[in-house]
């Protein structure tokens, strides 16, 4: 079902993007092919005539009446043609800013110019931008679908090693009796949180390991343990495909788990140059503790409502 939902969202996104792009094309929002009359004020008293392939610092006068100017560079071509590098500033018209973002040049907006008459250091010219089409569709497909599909594959491949490592560690801990001892020590808490799960069931051990990894801020390590816990909990499920109270409670705890050492956040802060990356430990402990308490209380209260207490018949 989830795959169909994602497919539907993708189709809707593409349809909306195509409709928006068609409207932009029909109204010629970006003035494709239209020549803009402008003036170029050359700097540094250049020697005339202008030399081909030479770069000339200049000021682009977009509207002489309104005094709108842009700093630019003129690269002279052949047959009175050239290329203009326009540098963005507070005077840049909004439409030019959009074209600049679409072109994705880091330093300048690119325009093609046809040079006209020269009066002193002032060059009359006609300027035109490269055609801009299907902006929204490219954003949905290239920057959206393709980009996040790549991220999904990289994430899935990156989890293979972690899953193999921690599932192996959990198997060793299970056979050595460590999980049984942890489950026994936490039995007063876990039996109240998960009354439907036997204390010696493998699901209980996987949940304890998952919660422990989350408390240490090891989110990637906790992921395979959480998947294993859900797999074991599903074995106790009377109605496959329907979440049990234990599943809902575990999901809430896994999402809002108390973090004693937010290792991932500390690493991100350190890489970003924070002067004291660990100064968030206190606030994180308080926030996640409150978060977990509120989550557990909420899920327990909701489980008491009649709408969630309907008798579930086993699968036939």
Question: How much beta, percentage-wise?
Answer: 15-25%
CA(first)-CA(last) distance: 22 Å
Helix content: 40-55%
Rg for CA atoms:
31 Å
Total of domains: 2
Outline type = elongated
Unreliable stretches (pLDDT < 50, length at least 5) are none
Spell out the helices and strands N to C: HEEEEHEEHHHHHHHH
User: What is the makeup of the main sheet?
Assistant: 6 strands, antiparallel, barrel
Number of helical regions = 10
Q: For the largest beta sheet, what order do the strands appear in spatially?
A: 1-2-3-4-5-6
User: What structural class results from the helix and strand content?
Assistant: alpha+beta
Describe what this molecule looks like in 3D.
- The chain is an alpha+beta fold and 316 residues long.
- It folds into two domains: 31-131, no CATH class; 177-308, no CATH class.
- It is 53% helix and 16% strand.
- The chain has ten helices and six strands.
- The chain has helices at 2-26, 94-103, 135-176, 178-185, 187-193, 202-215, 219-235, 245-255, 263-271, 281-303, and strands at residues 36-42, 55-63, 68-76, 81-86, 109-119, 122-128.
- The protein has a six-stranded antiparallel beta barrel with strand order 1-2-3-4-5-6.
- Strand 5 and strand 6 form a beta hairpin.
- Helix 3 crosses helix 7 (219-235) and helix 8 (245-255) packs antiparallel against helix 10.
- It is elongated.
- The relative contact order is 0.07.
């Amino acid at each position: 079902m989830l795959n169909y939902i994602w497919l539907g969202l993708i189709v809707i996104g593409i349809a909306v993007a195509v409709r928006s792009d068609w409207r932009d094309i029909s109204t010629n929002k970006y003035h494709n092919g239209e020549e803009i009359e402008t003036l170029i004020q050359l700097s540094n008293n250049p020697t005339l005539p202008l030399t081909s392939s030479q770069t000339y610092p200049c000021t682009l006068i977009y509207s002489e009446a309104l005094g709108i100017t842009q700093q630019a560079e003129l690269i002279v071509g052949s047959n009175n043609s050239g290329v203009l590098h326009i540098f963005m500033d507070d005077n840049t018209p909004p439409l030019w800013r959009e074209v600049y973002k679409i072109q994705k040049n880091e330093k300048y907006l690119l325009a093609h110019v046809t040079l006209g008459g020269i009066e002193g250091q002032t060059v009359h010219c006609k300027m035109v931008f490269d055609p801009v089409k299907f902006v929204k569709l490219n954003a949905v497909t290239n920057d959206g679908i393709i980009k996040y599909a790549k991220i999904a594959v990289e994430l899935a491949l990156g989890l293979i090693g972690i899953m193999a490592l921690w599932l192996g560690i959990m198997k060793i801990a299970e056979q050595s009796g460590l999980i049984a001892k942890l489950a026994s020590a936490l039995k007063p808490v876990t039996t109240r949180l998960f009354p439907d799960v036997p204390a010696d069931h493998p699901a209980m051990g996987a949940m304890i390991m998952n919660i422990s990894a989350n408390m240490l801020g090891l989110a990637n390590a906790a992921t395979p343990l959480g998947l294993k816990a859900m797999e074991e909990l599903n074995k106790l499920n009377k109605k496959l495909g329907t979440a049990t109270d234990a599943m809902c409670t575990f999901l809430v705890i896994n999402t809002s788990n108390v973090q004693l050492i937010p290792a991932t956040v500390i690493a991100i802060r350190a890489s970003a140059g924070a002067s004291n990356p660990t100064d968030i430990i206190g606030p994180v402990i308080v926030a996640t503790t409150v978060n977990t308490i509120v989550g557990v209380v909420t899920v327990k209260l909701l489980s008491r409502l009649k709408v969630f207490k309907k008798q579930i018949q086993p699968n036939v």
